[in-house]
Amino acid sequence: MIEKEKAIDANNKLSDAEKQQRKKKLKKAADEAKEKQSKQQQTKLEWTQKATEGTDAVEAVNPVGKKEKAKSSSRCSVSRKKEKAIER
Fold this sequence. Notes:
Blueprint (H helix, E strand, L loop, with lengths): L1 H9 L5 H23 L5 H16 L6 H22 L1
Helix pairs in contact: 1-2, 2-3
């Protein structure tokens, strides 16, 4: 989460309001992830799934400006497809 905050702060293409908005989304996602993890889980698999959901929520907060968003999202989707292919 700290790395995401640093990336948001370092992005000069975002206004202060956009930076604050993204930091709020990041904090909310992190808090939800912590809450999901802190709830009593019946199995390790359930806990792992909840942790993955929380991590994905944190990763979904985009520190990139609007102009760069289209470029990076297409690169991310290609990367995710490659990762999924490797996992199989």
